[in-house]
Amino acid sequence: MIDNKPKNKHIKHNRQMEGRAVNPYLLQEPEHFNKPAQLVRQIIDTPLTTRQKKIYHFCVRELMKTESGTMEIKTTVSDLCKFLDSDNRHIKADLRKLQKTTIVIEENGKQLTEAQLLSSHTMPKSQDNNFDMFRTLTIRFDIRLTEILKQIKSYAKLDLTVLKKLKITHSITLYEIFKRRLIKTNAGRLNITELELREYLNLENKYPDTKAFNRELKKWIKEIELNSNMSITWEKRKKNKINTYAFLVSDFIVLNFNTFKKKLLKIKNLSDLKFTYEDREYFFIDTEDNLDKLYITDYKKYMTYGTEEHTKNFNKSFTLPKEEAKIIWEKMYNEFLDNQYNFLYKFFIKNDLDLKIKSISELFLNEIIDEKMDKYFDHFQEHKTQN
C-alpha cells in the first residue's frame, strides 16, 4: 500500500494550492507585498522616481496573483491610483519610463538576464474622461522575466502602508534591501560596499564627496525609521582598502512580558549564565529541573554561604525577594523592547546589563559572536517567516 499522506503542513498546503491561480510561495497578506528576491538588490540602468517605483510594485504584485505562465495583468487606472493613494491618473509617462528601463538579474550565479521592467501596455485612448478610469488597463512583462519571477523561493515582505508614506525614491530602495535581509528574522547585520550601494541607488556619479553622500544617507534612513517600526544604525568601515557600510537593521517585534520571560527561561544552559545588574552579580538556578522554577539568585551571597549540599537541596534564602526579582525582570524586558540587539549582546555576550552603549554597531563583532547573536534572535521570534 502506497502512503500518499502529506508528510508536513507545507506539502499539504502546496497540494491544496495545485491548480489555483495564486502562487503558493507568495500568498500576500492585506496591505503587504511579497516582492521576489530577484528584484531586490538588483541593478537597473535608469533612476526611477518614487511614483514609478510604486507603480512597478503594483504591477509585480498583481502578476504574482496570476496563473503560472501568464505574462500580463489586467487592471484599471482607478485600481492603480487607489494603490498609489493618489488622484493623479496620468500614468502614460511613468509606464513608458518603466518600459525603457533595463534590469539585470543573476540566475544561479552563472547567468545574467537583462530585461525591460515592463514589455508593453494598452490603456484607454483618453485619460480625461472619468469613465476611462475604470476601463481595462493591460500591462505585459518580458517572457523570461515572468519565468524568473514565478520561480520564487524567497522574497522581501514589504508593508504597503510604509511604502505609501515614503516620499524619497532612495528610501524605498533601502527599505526593500533591509526588508530582504530580514526575511527570516527581525534583526540582522548587512554589509554593502560603497560602490554597490551607489549602484543600487543609481548614484554612481552623484554626491561624489563621501561626506555629502553620508548626509543624504542619514536623511533616507531617518525617513524609513519615521514611517515604519524599523531601527537602523550604521557605520562606515574600510575593509581591504574598500569603503564598506555596516548596517544593523531591526524590525520592532512586540512580546508581552510573560512571553519574554518564558522565552528567556528556555534558553539552553541559562543556569550557567552569570550577569551583572547595578554592580551586583546574579545567576539563575533550576531548582527542580523545571524551567518554570528558575529563580534569580544573588551570586556573591550564594558563593559565600552556598555548599554542594545547598546546590542539591536548594535553599530559597539565596534567591531574591519577589519584588526585587520583579524589578530586574522588568529592567531586562524594557531593555529588550528598547533595543533587542543591544540587550541580547549585553546579556548573553557581555553578561553586563550596566554596560553603556549607544549601538552595538559601534563595537567589533567577530563571526563567532555573530552566529551566537543570530541564534538568540531566532529564539526570541514569536513568528517565523517561511522561506
Total number of strands: 14
Architecture per CATH nomenclature, i.e. the level-2 architecture of the largest domain: Orthogonal Bundle
Task: Please tell me the total number of domains.
Answer: 3
Q: What is the beta-strand fraction?
A: 15-25%
Structural class of the helix and strand makeup?
A: alpha+beta
Strand order of the largest sheet: 2-4-5
Number of helices: 15
Mean pLDDT across all residues, rounded? 80
Task: Tell me which oligomeric state these chains represent.
Answer: single chain
Report the C-alpha radius of gyration, rounded.
26 Å
Largest sheet: 3 strands, antiparallel
User: What is the name of the CATH class of the largest domain?
Assistant: Mainly Alpha
- CA-to-CA gap between the ends? 33 Å
Apparent shape: elongated
Run of helices and strands: HEEHEHHEEEEHEHHEHHEEHEEEHHHHH
| Estimated helix fraction | 25-40%
Low-confidence stretches: 6-22, 383-387
